[in-house]
Amino acid sequence: MKYTIRYDDSDICLFRIYVPAAFASSFLAFIEQKNRENVPSVKKSPSCIDENYFIKLQSLVFETFDSFISSGLPLNLAVSKTNYAVKALGYANISYESVRGILSKSGRFRSKKR
Questions:
Q1: Does the pTM exceed 0.70?
Q2: Residue 78: what pLDDT?
Q3: Is 33 domain-assigned?
Q4: With 13 labelled, which of 58, 72, 95, 110 sits at a CA distance of 20 to 30 A?
């Protein structure tokens, strides 16, 4: 089993657990049993729960990034400043890689054809 632990700015510990396929169903059954027993569990991040959260976050990232690019900032600096701005607006669990991924999937990094 492989896992990663990350702490964000609000002292929330985020886990990513990699379980071999043979153990996945028994691991999930164990987690569900603990949830039924009302044992405190790891909170899901809002992006896992609410699709509207992701849509709002995505539009905020696009607007912020586009404003930095239109002001003449280089691409990497615009992504970095977008990350800081989005975090300052209450999305503390977003990372530079997440912002870059959102922008990449939208095609913001592709050069415009003439």
A1: no
A2: 92
A3: yes
A4: 58
Task: Look at residue 47 in the predicted model and tell me its pLDDT.
Answer: 44
Look at residue 25 and give its three-state secondary structure: helix
Are 38 and 53 found together in one domain? no
* Helix-then-strand count for the chain, H and E: 5, 2
pLDDT value, residue 64: 93
Q: Rounded to whole angstroms, how far apart are CA atoms 72 and 91?
A: 25
Element (H, E) at 99: helix 96-106
Q: Is residue 96, in this structure, part of any structural domain at all? A: yes
* Same domain for 77 and 90: yes
What is the residue type of 98? Answer: S
How many structural domains does the chain have?
2
**Which residue range(s) make up the domain with 15?**
2-43
If asked whether residues 26 and 69 sit together in one domain, one would say no
Q: Which residue has the tokens 């870059």?
A: 100
End-to-end CA distance of the chain, in Å? 49
